[in-house]
Amino acid sequence: MLFNNTEELKFKLLNGLIKWVSFLAFLLLFGCNRNIEFEESFNFTIELISGDDQIGLQNTTLLEDIIVRVVNDTGEAISGVTLNVNIISGGGKVNKASIITTDEGFAKISWELGSDYNNSIEIYTSSDKSSSVVVNAIAKYKYVAPVYDDDGWEITNAGDLLLNEKKVYDAIDEIRKGTYRKIHSILLSVNGKLILEEYFSGTNSFGDFIDYDRDTPHELQSVNKSFRGAMIGIAIDKGFIQDEKVPISGFFPELDYLTKDGKEAILLNHFLNMSSGLQWDESTDLAGFYETPFSTAHTYVLSKPLENTPGTFFEYNTGTSFVLNRIIMNAIDTDYETFARNHYSNLVESSALPGTGEPLDFRNTPRDMLKLGQVYLNEGKWKDTQVISKQWVNESTKVHFTVSPNSSYGYQWWIRNFNTSTQAYNCFYAAGFGGQFIFVIKELGLVAVFTGGNFNSNMSIPYEIMENYILEAFE
């Protein structure tokens, strides 16, 4: 083909040269950066070389790095591939959110585990998330001594007072991994020193999800009963009530039906040890009681007909326990809040009132629950201050009625034995629906507190934890 003029020929040659230069630049770019710019053109496979299924500690970097290798369809290592790293579960963090493979196709990732028991990360190519690997690890419990909070508790390390503290750490891991469910807290004190304090999120009896910590009050349920028993003892110690053998009728002179038909024989101690003789079915009467305003709730209980001779038969009765609050209010010379603050809370270095239930709060922090246990462990003393008389503590925690082969009742406290593989331990304890407990074992100087949310499931889990882990830590 002939060109019309020289200028047209120059134009055609220049245009062809530009096309050849562009093609060569394309080849150069493709050859040098094909893994970064054109990952979509290849099918990559990420191989996990090492680092899976490690066991480390909470919030601690794993000893071994995670190593992966990227290869193509023929098994050839691919360099320059961008890999992303994503935390799937457990919390924690990695040293880099993205990393580029080496000339040999390798990538190395440092992983700090989170606070949860099960931890997982996903490693995938930036261009194709279907090419990925998941790496798993277990974060074992990492002990940290409780925080000093200027609330009267002396703090020390668990290892200073336990022969085998690892048993306690194993118990925490069983909670963390879900073997023992719906535990909200576990606290231990030994010889008056707080050595363990762990909290877990969960749901209360109203269905509210709560991230529990040491400042969050927890519903006590029937642990309230043991606080009420303590308040009765204090009222007797201070002379507001003569003793526990006085008739109930004296606190309610306006209720003449308490002075006849056998009810005149009902004494205060019968309310304390659940032997009032009043007709009561905890499964049905409790609902009606809770629907009654506090101002008249005591009459709901006291007006029940007499079913057994007072003092002869144990019948668990939340209603008569609640009436103890009304008895205190009728006996003291001030309001209940002032009485409780002056004669209990201030003495145990607590800013909160005891969890007796209405008219006071039905909640307490686990640390305050632990204080009640410590006072009873120490024969009524908080440190060197006598809060409740030794006589009252002893009377409250001795057996008044045997309920079952391994369950007895005192004055608003339960009594039982715990058995490890080598030894039996006598324990008195407060117990509340859902898994609220204060366990006191005098021979070990131990107070253990549990709170929980097992309202529709196994609330006896803390018994198993005590026998299989906590007590064996002393052996």
Structure report:
The chain is of the alpha+beta class. It has helices at 6-37, 158-161, 166-176, 223-237, 268-272, 282-290, 294-302, 318-331, 336-345, 366-377, 390-396, 461-470, and strands at 45-50, 54-57, 66-71, 82-89, 93-94, 98-100, 106-109, 111-112, 118-125, 132-140, 154-155, 183-190, 193-199, 202-203, 209-210, 218-219, 363-364, 381-382, 385-386, 401-404, 407-409, 414-419, 424-432, 436-441, 446-452. It has a 9-stranded mixed sheet, with helices on both faces. A 5-stranded mixed sheet has the order 2-10-9-4-6, with no helix packed on it. A 3-stranded antiparallel sheet has the order 1-3-7, with no helix packed on it. A hairpin with a 4-residue loop joins strand 22 (414-419) and strand 23. Helix 7 packs across helix 8 (318-331). The longest helix is centred in the first third of the chain and has 32 residues, at 6-37. The radius of gyration is 34 Å and the shape is elongated.
Distinctive features:
nine-stranded mixed beta sheet, 475 residues, 29% helix, 25 strands, five-stranded mixed beta sheet, alpha+beta
Span of the ends, CA to CA? 104 Å
Gyration radius over CA: 34 Å
Any low-confidence stretches, pLDDT <50, length ≥5? 23-41
Main sheet characteristics: 9 strands, mixed
Categorize the overall geometry. elongated
Strand content: 15-25%
- According to DSSP, the number of beta strands is 25
Q: Helical segment tally? A: 12
Strand order of the largest sheet: 11-13-12-25-24-23-22-21-20
Structural class computed from helices and strand pairing: alpha+beta
If you average the pLDDT, what whole number results? 92
Secondary structure: helix percent: 25-40%
